[in-house]
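User: Please fill in residues for this 153-position structure.
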């Protein structure tokens, strides 16, 4: 999608360096990377400015005492509701069952989002436009990948 601007955020320098090498070697000009947590940057985005948002295999913080550090929570979903356009698509993917359950609960209780899954294949089969991430390939989670697609109402 050379006509689409992509913005990526990665808190780990090694991940940013790998992405930059790939971007440079492929001479890709429509990707911008943020080295750090996306939240402070996203808070400065204008209302309803994003068409699509991907949250692919974020750090699951698997220990219960660390769950408060997870990216997806009510506050973040409210932020997404503000910065995404009506009709925007949001994808969350994880291979940690309880994180997927928590994310689903956060999106479902927010009246700005709709989850239109009809059957188990809607969250168990990778969507056609999905690409396998490095974290997904590591298979460090406790379940097969779960793909949750939401629509901003």
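Assistant: Residues filled in for all 153 positions:
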């Amino acid at each position: 999608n050379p006509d689409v601007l992509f913005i990526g955020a990665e808190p780990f320098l090694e991940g940013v360096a790998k992405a930059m090498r790939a971007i440079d070697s492929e001479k890709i000009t429509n990707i911008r990377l943020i080295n750090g947590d996306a939240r402070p940057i996203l808070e400065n985005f204008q209302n309803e400015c994003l068409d699509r948002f991907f949250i692919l295999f974020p750090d699951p913080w698997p220990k219960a005492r660390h769950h408060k550090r997870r990216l997806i929570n009510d506050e973040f979903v409210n932020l997404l509701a503000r910065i995404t356009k009506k009709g925007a698509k949001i994808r969350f993917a994880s291979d940690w069952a309880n994180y997927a359950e928590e994310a689903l609960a956060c999106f479902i209780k927010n009246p700005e989002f709709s989850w239109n899954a009809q059957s188990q294949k809607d969250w168990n089969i990778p969507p056609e436009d999905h690409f396998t991430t490095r974290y997904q390939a590591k298979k460090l989670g406790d379940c097969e990948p779960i793909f949750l697609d939401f629509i901003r109402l």
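For context: Helices lie at 13-26, 38-42, 74-83, 97-109, 121-124, 134-138.
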